[in-house]
Amino acid sequence: MFNTISNQASKLINLTRRNKQLSKTKLITITSGKGGVGKSTFTGNIAYLLSSRGFKVAVIDADIGLANMQVLFDIKPKFTLFDYIEGKITIEEALLQTSYKNLFLVAGKSGYQYANHSNSFVFARIVEDVINLNEFDIVLIDTGAGLNEYVKEFLAISNNILAITTTDPSALTDLYALMKMLSKDKEELMLCFNHTRNHQIGDTISNSLINLAKKNRLNDNFMVKYIGNVSTSANISTTGRLRKLFSHEFKNDDSTRQLQAIIDTLLKNIK
Ligand SMILES: Nc1ncnc2c1ncn2[C@@H]1O[C@H](COP(=O)(O)OP(=O)(O)OP(=O)(O)O)[C@@H](O)[C@H]1O
């Protein structure tokens, strides 16, 4: 899976694994095969709900070129991930306090030309640096959609990977491609369905994907764990447009309850 990542990056990944054992910080990478399925909405709202439960949370917006998280958190970032990568600021300066207590953001930058960073290990390094601060309980990485080298690198350094999908056939096809890739050297993929009315739908589709994986003889030790669903809600799209978090604005909404249930399971599962 990671054969295209440079040796230098592989070394950093091993270092990150070692340092993760020394730090209290848990790392969760949130990804999706297809774009537009709700990955950033999940990341921002999961981060907020975790922080409101008392965890100190940092979000790294690694959706290179399509920085959405600053919009959801309604921040005009003074600095971005790339200022840090270019050595202009310290890691502490890169971690921007949001208006939510306990919640920090390393902002991305829309339209950034990242071709200069073809040695993509720089992205693994920033994650390692945040973990090494040993200050956060949880770091969430919001990757871009798809499976480019940058996304692969963020997946490589994380033991906790959460994929967001819808029931759209193209989203499921992309999800299966992600499962196929991860099955080579990961133990588990957690899965959430967005835009599904009830828990049962995700259960049924997850089982079909697991059966397909068995039929195609993907690694037996690789597990897909379905951890919950969020329904379509007008409150989610409206709050997104207003640069607000639905789970903050509508604490008793069904979708917020669904996301709280996802977080309960997520917390039981993360390593
Ligand atoms: N359950 C939902 N109900 C209603 N609207 C939703 C729901 N989930 C997400 N949306 C809306 O769908 C749009 C896309 O969501 P979002 O930006 O989170 O997707 P994404 O997967 O991060 O996209 P990208 O690949 O572009 O980063 C947003 O306008 C968001 O408000």
TrEMBL record:
Pfam families: AAA_31. ATP binds at residues 34-41. One of its GO terms (biological process) is negative regulation of cell division. GO terms for molecular function: ATP binding; ATP hydrolysis activity. One of its GO terms (cellular component) is cytosol. The keyword Disulfide bond does not apply. It comes from the Bacteria. Keywords: ATP-binding, Nucleotide-binding. Residues 26-187 form the AAA domain. This is ATP-binding protein.
